[in-house]
C-alpha cells in the first residue's frame, strides 16, 4: 500500500507559514535542493492543496526555460512535468489540466483508493489546509519535516485540531549547513 508523506518546512515553534501566508523565513540552499531532488525522484505522485498547486503551476512548468534557470530549477521543472499531480480543491475542475486529478468530494474514499494503487509514496507538498484535512481523516502516514532555525511566534500551524495522539517513529535526521534540520517520521502503529 502506498503511503502519504507530508513534506513541509516548519519553524521551530511549529508553523508552516506566517500569519499572512509568508514563507520568507524558509532557509534553502543547494545542499537541501540536492537532497530533496534525490528523494522526490523516487515519487510518482505529488499531492497539493489548491493554493499550493496554483503557486507551483505559476512557476514550475516554465522554470527550466528561463535564461537564468538554476540546475535545481531545470531538474525540478522536469520532474514536475512528469509527476502525476493530485489536487484537493472544492472549486477546481479537472478539465484542461494535464497529468492532474482533482479531488473535490469523498476525500476519505478517494484518497484511500489512491493509496491502494500501485506506485511509489505520494508526496504531499506544503498545503497546510489540505494537510489539516488529511490529518483529520488519519490519511497521512509520515512526515518529512525541514525544521528552520526561526521562531515565528504566530502563523499557520502544521498541526491543529488534533483529536487523538499521533505516535511517530523517527526514521532519519540530517543537519544542513544552513542550520535547517531534516526529521523524517513514519506513523508508529
UniProtKB/TrEMBL annotation:
GO terms for biological process: riboflavin biosynthetic process. It comes from the Bacteria. SUPFAM superfamilies: Dihydrofolate reductase-like. It comes from Aquella oligotrophica. This is Dihydrofolate reductase. Residues 2-180 form the Bacterial bifunctional deaminase-reductase C-terminal domain. GO terms for molecular function: 5-amino-6-(5-phosphoribosylamino)uracil reductase activity.
